[in-house]
């Protein structure tokens, strides 16, 4: 990529962001768009334009984001969101402190060296500012050694402070004197074989009553709810269709035409085939039929489909926290107890899985993930190699006349490789989430953390390493074939030359990506199309503008990839640091606005994501240190062994942090729940909040259901 292509990429990306920001300013003031740009406030009963009457400043949202406090974020979007902003702030801090030394120190040192550019004459204007421009063995490399130590020390300092701060956030949330149902319950897995003289519920109740006689409340045996869930989902589907049909009929009656047109539907496949019937009568009949079927299946489920796991409830959150940390059996595969998550987080189908089943599935998933990471690098490498214009013209000669046009060539060089990579990576997250759930993880937040971790390592291995090497290996394959030993210096020397790709990749991500995030053009268009052509009821409208959450499973790995790239190139090509600062600072601003006004969390784990984030930040730092060690070796710097202590110090630092902080994020510290809640907890309400909708149908007799769940002669449950 030449300098004009780089400027084209940067300039057009910035122009797109400005246009999208102005579109946001204009569209967010329209009354009909409030549910798209302020859904979080609307759901909390707040005025969408509170504090902005008569506002005409297009940058007012920036001022609001900057002036907001951490407590504002917690109040609007929860602890997990506040922890995410701690990560963004820490990343900005690391890069800003690094830039204060690296930019004024390394840029003049590299530029004034009489060496040759790293990319053989392409992009000379910026290659001169990289470490690749410094001659091998030069004494100027001492400045780069100092810079490597400086980046490492800054990262240690800020990560330590961040860990302390997040621990305080989590502690403050957990010790709050409000009733949270999950703080009074535990999940019990691997219940032993049922004795002949006891029911499953008697077995669980007897076991926990003997250990916690004063605070044990009751148990809920988990059952296999596949069939009842299927019936309930079908019933809910017909209820939505009935509401839609009735709304259509009501609208036809209120129109100018005096005729009343009753909607019709077909009874065959997907409503496209079969006999045409009156929709309202048909749906009423289906609902009545399914209600009867659901009630019968509920009774069968709560009595006969019991599994070897349960939820156990205590009247004290201190007891629940203690029970989740205690060893309840001398054998590892029985009576395993863990903290209960929020009811909406539980992956019920994974609770009955046995200890050994979970272990085997976990190892199988690890093997699949390893193979995916390794072999996915092959198509990534080909995408990286083939999307360069020179290689595309060799493979597809007929495009040469088009590509030779300067304007078209400039645009393609600026965007083609980056867009191809982004689209390619978008196919992966759902597959990794499926694998994480297959491991046997029983909470949504844990499954997303696991998928996020897999996606991060995949991104680093295939994007950072794959892209760095892909184009170089493709163009020098014959040389490597003749001299395999040439691959080591080739890999190291390819780093500075690929810095330009990552500069444009980062710029594209923060300008276009955050511009689309802020403007919400796609959700806005989808909402208005659905409102005009699809939605007929208030429930359908609300579903159309439902904003969703931050999407940690993909957002955090994407941010971590950017941080890894910027850290690894921070000393080799320091000019990338300002781009990293803009990425995380702009992300902080845009997502602050979204957290306060738009996004609605789908769960709350009270900061359990932080150890996951911290571990990946340490992995990025160690990768940076190893990269610098290897590159100094290629530069034939005699004192390269001076960098050996850095990865060792990082491992020691990570070990100390894990020993000091990590356990609190695995279990609730008893000191933060030793004080009882302000109001006496309604244990029956807490208990019923864990009953899934498929077993809490309005048509089911509550007394009968409660009897089925509580009598020891009828083991009960929920899945």
UniProtKB/TrEMBL annotation:
The chain crosses the membrane at residues 6-27, 82-107, 141-160, 363-386, 415-435, 455-474, 561-589, 609-630, 637-656. It comes from the Eukaryota. Belongs to the CSC1 (TC 1.A.17) family. GO terms for cellular component: plasma membrane. Its main location: membrane. Residues 5-161 form the CSC1/OSCA1-like N-terminal transmembrane domain. One of its GO terms (molecular function) is calcium-activated cation channel activity. Residues 183-350 form the CSC1/OSCA1-like cytosolic domain. It is a multi-pass membrane protein. Keywords: Calcium, Ion channel, Ion transport, Membrane, Transmembrane, Transmembrane helix, Transport. Residues 362-632 form the CSC1/OSCA1-like 7TM region domain. The keyword Oxidoreductase does not apply. It is found in: Membrane. This is CSC1-like protein ERD4. It holds the Pfam family RSN1_TM.
């Amino acid at each position: 990529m030449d300098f004009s292509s780089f400027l084209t990429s940067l300039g057009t990306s910035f122009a797109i962001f400005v246009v999208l920001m102005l579109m946001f300013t204009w569209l967010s003031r329209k009354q009909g768009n409030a549910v798209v740009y302020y859904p979080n406030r609307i759901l909390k009963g707040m005025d969408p334009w509170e504090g902005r009457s008569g506002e005409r400043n297009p940058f007012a949202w920036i001022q609001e984001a900057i002036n907001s406090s951490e407590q504002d974020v917690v109040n609007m979007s929860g602890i997990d969101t506040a922890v995410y902003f701690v990560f963004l702030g820490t990343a900005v801090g690391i890069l800003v402190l690094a830039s204060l030394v690296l930019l004024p120190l390394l840029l003049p040192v590299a530029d004034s060296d009489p060496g040759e550019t790293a990319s053989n004459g392409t992009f000379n204007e910026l290659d001169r500012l990289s470490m690749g421009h410094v001659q091998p063995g030069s004494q100027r490399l001492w400045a780069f050694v100092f810079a490597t130590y400086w980046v490492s020390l800054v990262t240690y300092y800020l990560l330590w402070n961040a860990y302390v701060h997040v621990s305080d956030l989590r502690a403050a949330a957990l010790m709050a004197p409000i009733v949270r149902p999950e703080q009074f319950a535990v999940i019990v897995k691997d219940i032993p074989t049922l004795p002949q003289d006891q029911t499953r519920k008697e077995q669980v109740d007897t076991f926990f009553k003997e250990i916690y006689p004063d605070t044990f409340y009751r148990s809920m045996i988990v059952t296999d709810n596949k069939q009842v869930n299927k019936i309930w989902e079908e019933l809910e589907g017909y209820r939505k269709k009935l509401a839609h049909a009735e709304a259509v009929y009501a609208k036809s009656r209120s129109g100018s035409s005096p005729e009343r047109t009753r909607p019709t539907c077909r009874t065959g496949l997907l409503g496209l085939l079969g006999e045409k019937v009156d929709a309202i009568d048909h749906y009423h009949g289906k609902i009545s039929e399914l209600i009867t079927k659901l009630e019968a299946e509920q009774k069968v489920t709560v009595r006969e489909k019991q599994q070897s796991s349960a939820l156990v409830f205590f009247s004290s959150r201190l007891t629940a926290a203690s029970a989740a940390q205690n060893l309840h059996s001398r054998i590892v595969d029985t009576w395993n107890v863990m903290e209960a998550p929020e009811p909406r987080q539980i992956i019920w189908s994974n609770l009955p899985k046995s200890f050994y089943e979970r272990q085997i599935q976990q190892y199988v998933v690890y093997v699949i993930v390893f193979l995916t990471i390794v072999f996915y690098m092959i198509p990534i490498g080909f995408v990286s190699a083939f999307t360069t214009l020179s290689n595309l013209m060799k493979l597809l000669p007929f495009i040469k006349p088009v590509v030779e046009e300067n304007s078209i060539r400039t645009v393609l060089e600026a965007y083609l490789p980056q867009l191809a990579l982004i689209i390619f990576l978008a196919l992966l997250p759902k597959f990794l989430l499926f694998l994480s759930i297959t491991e046997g993880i029983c909470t949504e937040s844990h499954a997303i953390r696991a998928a996020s971790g897999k996606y991060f390592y995949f991104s680093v291995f295939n994007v950072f390493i794959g892209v760095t090497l892909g184009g170089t290996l493709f163009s020098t394959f014959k040389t490597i074939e003749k001299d395999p030993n040439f691959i080591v210096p080739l890999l190291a020397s390819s780093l500075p030359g690929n810095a330009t790709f990552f500069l444009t990749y980062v710029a594209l991500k923060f300008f276009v990506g955050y511009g689309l995030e802020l403007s919400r053009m796609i959700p806005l268009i989808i909402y208005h199309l659905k409102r005009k052509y699809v939605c007929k009821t208030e429930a359908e409208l609300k579903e159309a503008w439902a904003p969703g959450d931050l999407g940690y499973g993909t957002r955090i790995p994407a941010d971590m990839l950017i941080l890894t790239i910027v850290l690894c190139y921070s000393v080799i090509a320091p000019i990338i640091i300002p781009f990293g600062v803009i990425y995380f600072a702009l992300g902080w601003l845009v997502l602050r606005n979204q957290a306060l006004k738009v996004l609605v969390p789908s769960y709350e784990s009270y900061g359990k994501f932080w150890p996951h984030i911290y571990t990946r930040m340490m992995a990025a730092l160690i990768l940076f240190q190893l990269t610098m060690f290897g590159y100094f070796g290629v530069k034939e710097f005699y004192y390269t062994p001076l960098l050996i202590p850095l990865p060792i110090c990082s491992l020691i630092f990570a070990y100390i942090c894990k020993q000091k902080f990590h356990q609190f994020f695995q279990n609730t510290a008893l000191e933060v729940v030793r004080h009882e809640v302000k109001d006496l907890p309604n244990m029956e309400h807490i208990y019923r909040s864990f009953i899934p909708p498929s077993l809490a149908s309005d048509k089911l007799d509550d007394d009968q259901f409660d009897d089925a769940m509580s009598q020891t002669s009828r083991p009960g449950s929920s899945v």
